[in-house]
Amino acid sequence: MKLRIGVVGLGNAWQARHRPALRALADRFEVRAICEEVALLADQAAQEFDATAVDGFRALTAREDIDAVLLLSSQWYGALPILAACQLGKAIYCAANAQIMSAQASEIKSCVEASGIAFMSEFPRRHAPATLRLKELIATRLGQPQLLFCHLRSTRKPTSDGEERQEEIDHELLELVDWCRYIVGQEAISVIGIRQGSLNTHPSEHQCDYQMMSIEFDQPHDACQPAMAQISVGDYIPNDWTEAIAFRAPAAMQIHCENGIAFVDLPSTLIWFDEAGRHLESLDSERPIGEHLLCQFHRSVTSLVQNTSSLEDTFRALSIVTATQSSYREGRRIILDFN
Prior knowledge:
This protein is an alpha/beta fold.
Protein backbone atom coordinates (compact mmCIF):
# COMPACT_ATOMS: atom_id res chain seq x y z
CA MET A 1 0.00 0.00 0.00
CA LYS A 2 1.40 3.40 -1.00
CA LEU A 3 0.68 6.18 1.50
CA ARG A 4 -0.12 9.64 0.17
CA ILE A 5 1.55 12.11 2.50
CA GLY A 6 1.72 15.82 3.18
CA VAL A 7 4.84 17.39 4.67
CA VAL A 8 4.44 20.22 7.19
CA GLY A 9 7.67 22.14 7.85
CA LEU A 10 10.83 20.85 6.22
CA GLY A 11 13.02 21.16 9.32
CA ASN A 12 16.78 20.90 9.85
CA ALA A 13 16.97 17.19 8.93
CA TRP A 14 15.14 17.47 5.60
CA GLN A 15 18.20 17.36 3.36
CA ALA A 16 20.16 14.78 5.34
CA ARG A 17 17.41 12.39 6.51
CA HIS A 18 13.85 12.88 5.33
CA ARG A 19 14.34 13.89 1.69
CA PRO A 20 16.63 10.94 0.75
CA ALA A 21 14.45 8.53 2.74
CA LEU A 22 11.29 9.58 0.90
CA ARG A 23 13.03 9.26 -2.45
CA ALA A 24 14.35 5.79 -1.58
CA LEU A 25 10.91 4.67 -0.39
CA ALA A 26 8.97 5.92 -3.40
CA ASP A 27 7.23 2.53 -3.56
CA ARG A 28 5.67 3.16 -0.11
CA PHE A 29 5.22 6.93 0.07
CA GLU A 30 3.95 9.49 -2.41
CA VAL A 31 4.47 13.13 -1.43
CA ARG A 32 1.35 15.01 -2.56
CA ALA A 33 1.65 18.38 -0.76
CA ILE A 34 4.24 20.44 1.15
CA CYS A 35 3.65 23.31 3.57
CA GLU A 36 6.62 25.43 4.66
CA GLU A 37 7.01 28.94 6.10
CA VAL A 38 9.58 29.85 3.45
CA ALA A 39 7.65 29.73 0.18
CA LEU A 40 10.77 29.29 -1.95
CA LEU A 41 11.79 26.15 -0.03
CA ALA A 42 8.26 24.76 -0.31
CA ASP A 43 8.25 25.34 -4.07
CA GLN A 44 11.66 23.71 -4.56
CA ALA A 45 10.72 20.63 -2.52
CA ALA A 46 7.34 20.34 -4.22
CA GLN A 47 8.90 20.45 -7.68
CA GLU A 48 11.35 17.71 -6.77
CA PHE A 49 8.56 15.36 -5.68
CA ASP A 50 6.02 16.51 -8.28
CA ALA A 51 3.83 17.70 -5.41
CA THR A 52 1.86 20.85 -4.63
CA ALA A 53 3.13 23.69 -2.44
CA VAL A 54 0.29 24.54 -0.03
CA ASP A 55 -0.04 27.82 1.86
CA GLY A 56 -1.27 26.47 5.20
CA PHE A 57 -1.31 23.29 7.28
CA ARG A 58 -5.13 23.29 7.51
CA ALA A 59 -5.47 23.27 3.74
CA LEU A 60 -2.89 20.46 3.58
CA THR A 61 -4.51 18.22 6.20
CA ALA A 62 -7.97 18.76 4.67
CA ARG A 63 -6.93 17.46 1.24
CA GLU A 64 -8.69 14.25 0.25
CA ASP A 65 -5.54 12.90 -1.40
CA ILE A 66 -3.58 12.96 1.91
CA ASP A 67 -3.48 9.82 4.09
CA ALA A 68 -0.78 10.89 6.56
CA VAL A 69 1.05 14.03 7.71
CA LEU A 70 4.80 14.27 8.26
CA LEU A 71 5.31 17.05 10.79
CA LEU A 72 9.04 17.74 10.51
CA SER A 73 9.26 21.20 12.10
CA SER A 74 7.11 23.10 14.59
CA GLN A 75 7.70 26.57 13.07
CA TRP A 76 4.97 29.03 14.16
CA TYR A 77 2.05 26.63 14.31
CA GLY A 78 3.26 24.34 17.11
CA ALA A 79 0.83 21.51 17.84
CA LEU A 80 -2.02 22.82 15.65
CA PRO A 81 -1.25 20.48 12.70
CA ILE A 82 -1.50 17.47 15.05
CA LEU A 83 -4.90 18.56 16.32
CA ALA A 84 -6.09 19.23 12.77
CA ALA A 85 -4.87 15.81 11.60
CA CYS A 86 -6.66 14.13 14.52
CA GLN A 87 -9.95 15.82 13.59
CA LEU A 88 -9.61 14.63 10.00
CA GLY A 89 -8.37 11.12 10.80
CA LYS A 90 -4.91 11.53 9.24
CA ALA A 91 -1.92 9.56 10.60
CA ILE A 92 0.96 11.62 12.04
CA TYR A 93 4.73 11.26 11.94
CA CYS A 94 6.20 13.79 14.38
CA ALA A 95 9.87 14.83 14.25
CA ALA A 96 9.63 17.92 16.49
CA ASN A 97 8.46 16.38 19.74
CA ALA A 98 9.85 18.76 22.38
CA GLN A 99 8.85 21.98 20.66
CA ILE A 100 5.36 20.75 19.80
CA MET A 101 4.28 18.74 22.81
CA SER A 102 5.73 20.71 25.72
CA ALA A 103 2.85 23.21 25.95
CA GLN A 104 -0.08 20.91 25.06
CA ALA A 105 1.11 17.39 25.90
CA SER A 106 -2.03 16.20 27.70
CA GLU A 107 -4.36 17.66 25.06
CA ILE A 108 -2.38 16.05 22.22
CA LYS A 109 -2.26 12.70 23.99
CA SER A 110 -6.03 12.69 24.59
CA CYS A 111 -6.79 13.86 21.05
CA VAL A 112 -4.62 11.20 19.39
CA GLU A 113 -6.00 8.41 21.57
CA ALA A 114 -9.59 9.49 20.95
CA SER A 115 -9.13 9.77 17.17
CA GLY A 116 -7.65 6.27 16.82
CA ILE A 117 -5.05 7.42 14.28
CA ALA A 118 -1.51 6.11 13.98
CA PHE A 119 1.01 8.40 15.67
CA MET A 120 4.77 7.95 15.62
CA SER A 121 7.45 10.09 17.24
CA GLU A 122 10.85 10.25 15.59
CA PHE A 123 13.51 8.89 17.98
CA PRO A 124 16.46 8.01 15.73
CA ARG A 125 18.81 7.01 18.56
CA ARG A 126 16.55 4.05 19.36
CA HIS A 127 16.92 2.57 15.90
CA ALA A 128 20.65 3.08 15.32
CA PRO A 129 22.54 -0.18 14.59
CA ALA A 130 24.76 0.35 17.64
CA THR A 131 21.71 0.66 19.90
CA LEU A 132 20.10 -2.51 18.58
CA ARG A 133 23.36 -4.44 19.04
CA LEU A 134 23.75 -3.04 22.56
CA LYS A 135 20.29 -4.35 23.47
CA GLU A 136 21.35 -7.78 22.21
CA LEU A 137 24.52 -7.71 24.33
CA ILE A 138 22.58 -6.65 27.43
CA ALA A 139 20.34 -9.69 26.99
CA THR A 140 23.17 -12.13 26.26
CA ARG A 141 26.58 -10.96 27.57
CA LEU A 142 26.64 -7.68 29.48
CA GLY A 143 23.68 -8.16 31.80
CA GLN A 144 21.37 -5.58 33.36
CA PRO A 145 22.42 -1.91 32.97
CA GLN A 146 23.48 -0.18 36.18
CA LEU A 147 24.97 3.20 35.19
CA LEU A 148 24.50 5.17 31.97
CA PHE A 149 26.34 8.36 31.01
CA CYS A 150 25.27 10.50 28.06
CA HIS A 151 27.04 13.80 27.51
CA LEU A 152 26.25 15.87 24.44
CA ARG A 153 28.74 18.60 23.59
CA SER A 154 26.51 21.01 21.76
CA THR A 155 27.23 24.11 19.68
CA ARG A 156 24.90 27.04 19.31
CA LYS A 157 23.96 28.54 15.97
CA PRO A 158 25.10 32.15 15.58
CA THR A 159 21.58 33.12 14.48
CA SER A 160 19.77 31.42 17.39
CA ASP A 161 18.37 33.54 20.21
CA GLY A 162 18.23 32.30 23.80
CA GLU A 163 14.68 30.91 23.61
CA GLU A 164 15.27 29.13 20.30
CA ARG A 165 18.51 27.64 21.62
CA GLN A 166 16.74 26.36 24.73
CA GLU A 167 14.15 24.64 22.50
CA GLU A 168 16.97 22.89 20.64
CA ILE A 169 18.52 21.72 23.92
CA ASP A 170 15.14 20.50 25.24
CA HIS A 171 14.71 18.46 22.03
CA GLU A 172 18.12 16.83 22.55
CA LEU A 173 17.33 16.12 26.20
CA LEU A 174 14.00 14.54 25.24
CA GLU A 175 15.72 12.20 22.78
CA LEU A 176 18.45 11.29 25.28
CA VAL A 177 15.88 10.54 28.00
CA ASP A 178 13.93 8.30 25.64
CA TRP A 179 17.16 6.58 24.59
CA CYS A 180 18.09 5.78 28.19
CA ARG A 181 14.57 4.54 28.97
CA TYR A 182 14.75 2.26 25.96
CA ILE A 183 18.18 0.87 26.89
CA VAL A 184 17.34 0.27 30.55
CA GLY A 185 13.90 -1.17 29.85
CA GLN A 186 12.49 0.11 33.16
CA GLU A 187 10.43 3.13 34.12
CA ALA A 188 12.02 6.18 35.73
CA ILE A 189 10.98 6.82 39.34
CA SER A 190 12.83 10.04 40.20
CA VAL A 191 14.99 12.77 38.70
CA ILE A 192 17.19 15.60 39.90
CA GLY A 193 18.63 18.35 37.72
CA ILE A 194 21.43 20.92 37.80
CA ARG A 195 21.62 23.95 35.56
CA GLN A 196 24.56 26.29 34.96
CA GLY A 197 23.80 29.58 33.19
CA SER A 198 26.13 31.99 31.44
CA LEU A 199 27.36 34.92 33.52
CA ASN A 200 27.50 37.06 30.38
CA THR A 201 23.92 36.48 29.26
CA HIS A 202 20.95 38.67 30.08
CA PRO A 203 18.34 36.70 32.12
CA SER A 204 15.61 37.43 29.56
CA GLU A 205 17.50 35.43 26.91
CA HIS A 206 17.16 32.15 28.86
CA GLN A 207 20.70 31.14 27.86
CA CYS A 208 22.22 28.11 29.56
CA ASP A 209 25.73 26.74 29.21
CA TYR A 210 25.22 23.36 30.92
CA GLN A 211 22.31 21.19 32.00
CA MET A 212 22.48 17.85 33.76
CA MET A 213 19.87 15.40 35.00
CA SER A 214 20.26 12.24 37.05
CA ILE A 215 17.47 9.70 36.55
CA GLU A 216 16.78 6.78 38.88
CA PHE A 217 14.94 3.82 37.37
CA ASP A 218 12.74 1.19 38.94
CA GLN A 219 14.60 -1.89 40.16
CA PRO A 220 13.98 -5.14 38.25
CA HIS A 221 13.18 -8.12 40.44
CA ASP A 222 16.33 -9.95 39.27
CA ALA A 223 18.78 -7.02 39.60
CA CYS A 224 21.00 -6.25 42.57
CA GLN A 225 20.39 -2.49 42.31
CA PRO A 226 18.36 -0.01 40.25
CA ALA A 227 19.89 1.63 37.21
CA MET A 228 20.78 5.31 37.11
CA ALA A 229 21.38 7.53 34.08
CA GLN A 230 23.26 10.81 34.00
CA ILE A 231 22.36 12.94 30.99
CA SER A 232 23.97 16.29 30.24
CA VAL A 233 24.12 18.86 27.48
CA GLY A 234 26.99 21.32 27.39
CA ASP A 235 27.06 24.50 25.31
CA TYR A 236 30.13 26.11 26.80
CA ILE A 237 32.67 26.09 23.94
CA PRO A 238 32.55 29.13 21.60
CA ASN A 239 31.68 28.29 18.00
CA ASP A 240 34.88 29.77 16.62
CA TRP A 241 37.02 27.43 18.75
CA THR A 242 36.78 24.68 16.14
CA GLU A 243 39.75 22.68 17.41
CA ALA A 244 38.38 22.64 20.95
CA ILE A 245 34.93 21.53 19.78
CA ALA A 246 36.40 18.57 17.89
CA PHE A 247 38.90 17.57 20.60
CA ARG A 248 38.17 14.20 22.25
CA ALA A 249 34.45 14.23 21.69
CA PRO A 250 32.75 12.08 24.37
CA ALA A 251 31.06 8.82 23.47
CA ALA A 252 27.34 9.20 22.81
CA MET A 253 26.75 6.74 25.66
CA GLN A 254 28.93 5.00 28.22
CA ILE A 255 27.13 2.19 30.00
CA HIS A 256 28.16 0.03 32.96
CA CYS A 257 26.35 -3.30 33.20
CA GLU A 258 26.50 -6.25 35.59
CA ASN A 259 29.08 -8.11 33.47
CA GLY A 260 30.87 -5.40 31.50
CA ILE A 261 30.93 -1.90 30.09
CA ALA A 262 30.26 -0.46 26.65
CA PHE A 263 30.90 2.75 24.71
CA VAL A 264 28.45 3.69 21.96
CA ASP A 265 29.22 6.05 19.10
CA LEU A 266 26.21 6.56 16.89
CA PRO A 267 25.12 5.35 14.53
CA SER A 268 27.21 2.19 14.11
CA THR A 269 30.25 1.89 16.40
CA LEU A 270 30.19 -0.11 19.62
CA ILE A 271 33.17 -0.92 21.86
CA TRP A 272 32.54 -3.18 24.83
CA PHE A 273 34.61 -4.89 27.52
CA ASP A 274 34.05 -8.00 29.61
CA GLU A 275 36.30 -10.58 31.28
CA ALA A 276 37.55 -11.68 27.86
CA GLY A 277 38.83 -8.18 27.08
CA ARG A 278 38.05 -5.56 24.44
CA HIS A 279 35.56 -6.03 21.58
CA LEU A 280 35.15 -3.58 18.71
CA GLU A 281 32.11 -3.78 16.44
CA SER A 282 31.47 -1.63 13.38
CA LEU A 283 27.92 -2.36 12.40
CA ASP A 284 26.21 -2.11 9.07
CA SER A 285 22.53 -1.47 8.54
CA GLU A 286 20.30 -2.57 5.71
CA ARG A 287 18.82 0.93 5.53
CA PRO A 288 19.78 4.41 6.77
CA ILE A 289 18.01 5.56 9.94
CA GLY A 290 15.59 7.79 8.03
CA GLU A 291 14.38 4.92 5.86
CA HIS A 292 14.11 2.58 8.85
CA LEU A 293 11.94 5.08 10.73
CA LEU A 294 9.62 5.71 7.80
CA CYS A 295 9.25 1.98 7.16
CA GLN A 296 8.16 1.57 10.76
CA PHE A 297 5.67 4.41 10.33
CA HIS A 298 4.31 2.77 7.19
CA ARG A 299 3.73 -0.47 9.11
CA SER A 300 1.94 1.34 11.94
CA VAL A 301 -0.38 3.17 9.53
CA THR A 302 -1.27 0.09 7.49
CA SER A 303 -1.78 -2.07 10.59
CA LEU A 304 -5.33 -2.68 11.73
CA VAL A 305 -4.32 -2.33 15.40
CA GLN A 306 -3.69 1.10 16.93
CA ASN A 307 -0.28 1.22 18.61
CA THR A 308 0.04 4.08 21.11
CA SER A 309 3.43 3.07 22.53
CA SER A 310 5.29 5.80 20.62
CA LEU A 311 2.94 8.46 21.96
CA GLU A 312 3.26 7.09 25.49
CA ASP A 313 7.07 7.01 25.24
CA THR A 314 7.08 10.63 24.10
CA PHE A 315 4.72 11.70 26.86
CA ARG A 316 6.79 10.00 29.57
CA ALA A 317 10.12 11.31 28.30
CA LEU A 318 8.63 14.80 28.16
CA SER A 319 7.31 14.40 31.71
CA ILE A 320 10.84 13.58 32.90
CA VAL A 321 12.30 16.64 31.16
CA THR A 322 9.54 18.81 32.66
CA ALA A 323 10.18 17.38 36.14
CA THR A 324 13.88 18.18 35.69
CA GLN A 325 13.00 21.81 35.06
CA SER A 326 11.05 21.78 38.33
CA SER A 327 14.12 20.34 40.01
CA TYR A 328 16.22 23.25 38.65
CA ARG A 329 13.87 25.73 40.29
CA GLU A 330 13.24 23.93 43.57
CA GLY A 331 16.68 22.43 44.15
CA ARG A 332 15.44 18.94 45.05
CA ARG A 333 14.86 15.48 43.61
CA ILE A 334 11.45 15.08 41.98
CA ILE A 335 9.54 11.82 42.44
CA LEU A 336 7.87 10.62 39.25
CA ASP A 337 4.48 8.93 39.17
CA PHE A 338 3.12 7.65 35.86
CA ASN A 339 0.20 5.74 37.35
